[in-house]
Write a structure and sequence with these properties.
Blueprint (H helix, E strand, L loop, with lengths): L17 H17 L3 E2 L5 E3 L1 H7 L4 H6 L1 E4 L5 E4 L4 H10 L9 E10 L11 E10 L4 H18 L5 E6 L3 H15 L8 H9 L14 H4 L10 H17 L4 E2 L11 E8 L10 E5 L3 H4 L7 E7 H10 L12 E5 L4 H14 L4 E2 L7 H10 L4 E5 L1 H6 L1 E6 L7 E4 L3 H7 L2
Parallel strand pairs: 1-5, 7-8, 12-13, 12-14
Antiparallel strand pairs: 2-4, 3-4, 5-6, 6-11, 7-9, 9-10, 10-11, 14-15, 15-16
Helix pairs in contact: 1-5, 5-9
Amino acid sequence: MPDLQSPRGMEDLLPEDAAVWRHVRDIAEHVARLFDYGYISTPVVEDARVFLRTVGEESDIAQKEMYVFEDRGGDRMALRPEGTAAISRAYIEHGMGSRPQPVRLFYIGPFFRYDRPQAGRYRQLWQFGAECIGDASAAADAEIIELQHTLYQELGLPDLLLRINSIGTAETRARYTEALREHFRPHLESLSKDSQRRFETNILRILDSKEDAGHPAVTGAPSILDFLTEEDAAHFAAVQGYLGALGISYVVDPRVVRGLDYYARTVWEFEPPDAAGQSTVGAGGRYDGLMELLGGPATPAVGFATGIERIVLNLRRRELAPEEEAPVDVAMVPLGEAGPAAAMRLARALRAAGLAVRAGTPGRSLRAQLRAASNSNAAFAVILGDDEARDGVAQVKPLGADGEQLTVPFGSVADAIQRSW
């Protein structure tokens, strides 16, 4: 084994993986633009308070998952564990509340969580997400669920199961939390250590515990839907009505929750039909209380995030992932003493004409360079030796298919290749 390796839970993205990642990224950006969402990028490193204020010092993210450090200036910084808080900080900092509302934003990038690595879960993870900020309506919830649903449809994952729930408002959850404490207290010793800790710090998270998912106390827990106010229930019914109008299938699942206080009302998850373990592909929810925690005015918002690694994993399981990049158009074959410089000049002109060109390796034989050109899946080899450099021409040779090798003036090589298609 080499002495130096990538950190545990953080993986290198190699050229052979690029095709599927670019495929997912391009489709995600295309779908976001179809819904008129604008791109936003925030720093990988943030003031740790951006996350500690919003998730709480006692949350799982703060206690077990965040990479927190002190920089050389003595400031407490964090590698971002999620995107929503950072985008909310940017919304406040740049006065986006004065823009026409709602503000629709999307992002894609790496996030960092110190967690136990496993299939589909990494310490550096990539996410695509979208946020609709400044709209409290049920229609905004439905729109962003539709965006996420459209993304999976376009990627070829139409059968992901959408599970939705309403967690009401803070007042709703306060009453519900007390009911959960009474329900779980007699069963506490039989629950996992993690759920016992959550009983004290974040009891709602017991409901989405993977370890205790089949425990009778979890499956028999009271439903938060029985604690919704009339306004909460009306909002949730409206969301379901919009989803029905859009033809988006879903199931109502009271165990879909969020443990953070700033979440409100609609929450949801998408997962494969044969879901098991850490299988959620993407999740979202309304977070009407977040802006105030960051020092901004009360601002309703709703959004989702989806894991790129989880998407790629599902695409590959279904053999839907493109595994190869588009082939290169031209491979240069420089020969002799004058050929390499002439090949460089011609390659530059071909790239300016929009062709993808692979440089050759001077000093190698014609046979070796043609073999390398074929192995690169190039459509054409362009051969330049001393005679060609002197006469201002190139030999254009089709690769991998029948075709005649032609002698073409430098200025006509691009046209000759493009006409051949």
